[in-house]
Write a structure and sequence with these properties.
By secondary structure, this protein is mainly α. The chain has eleven helices and two strands. Helix 4 runs antiparallel to helix 5 and helix 5 crosses helix 9. The relative contact order is 0.15. InterPro entries: TAT_signal. This is Peptidoglycan-binding protein. It comes from Brachybacterium vulturis.
Length: 215
């Protein structure tokens, strides 16, 4: 992998701010400050909602496609940030662990938890490698993390493709890998099931500290 997430000791950022971003490593937090200077300021408690909303940006979490693979214990800042973003949005929709696990394993298998800018396969892109030609939204929408995740969940008004809650309304009763495959129709369905354990570990590590995201 590119790098292991740096230690989070002696952080120059308030603990509350780090928890709002899902315990991002310092490198990602520093990058956030460069991309969105206004969000780097320490806000009063009354401004926490605005602060948390500002943490979830699109640009600083986007990087070119690589094929480095996925190693749970070597997740870099990009992967931690995208994983915790998925958890935050799922919680914002008042959905639980099972839905988050399906979304996480899909983003791991499809894009190693990176929000890819270039097309990787035909016209696919983003966290879920969604294809505009298949009704998942425009070029920009499939690369916009919130739009892409909402579309995957079946909650994106911009998407014409059936998402998880439409294809598998009783998702909690499904094996997560099978639920992911029902949405993605992959040529390699076994890959989703292989990542279920990693996705549950990610949920266990971060879910309690990640605030729901509803914007």
């Amino acid at each position: 992998m590119a790098s292991a997430a740096p230690a989070r000791t002696r952080s120059p950022f308030p603990r509350r701010r780090l928890l709002a971003t899902g315990a991002l490593g310092l490198a990602a937090a520093a990058t956030l400050g460069a991309v969105a200077p206004a969000s780097a300021a320490v806000l009063d408690d009354g401004d926490l909602a605005a602060q948390e909303s500002a943490q979830w940006t699109e640009e600083f979490l986007t990087r070119p496609e690589t094929r480095e693979g996925f190693v749970l214990e070597a997740m870099d800042d990009w992967q931690v940030a995208n994983a915790t973003f998925i958890i935050a949005v799922v919680k914002g929709h008042e959905l639980g662990e099972e839905v988050a696990v399906v979304a996480l394993i899909t983003a791991i298998v499809e894009a190693w938890l990176y929000n890819y800018e270039p097309a990787v396969d035909a016209d696919s892109g983003g966290l879920f490698q969604q294809r505009p030609s298949m009704g998942w939204g425009t070029y920009d929408e499939v690369r916009h993390k919130k739009h892409a995740l909402d579309a995957f969940l079946g909650l994106g008004e911009h998407s014409q493709a059936p998402g998880l809650l439409q294809v598998v309304p009783d998702v909690a009763s499904w094996e997560p890998g099978a639920a992911a495959q029902a949405v993605q129709a992959s040529a390699h369905p076994e890959r989703y099931t292989e990542l279920v354990g990693a996705a549950r570990e990610i949920w266990d590590r971060f879910a309690d500290d990640v605030e729901p995201y509803t914007a």
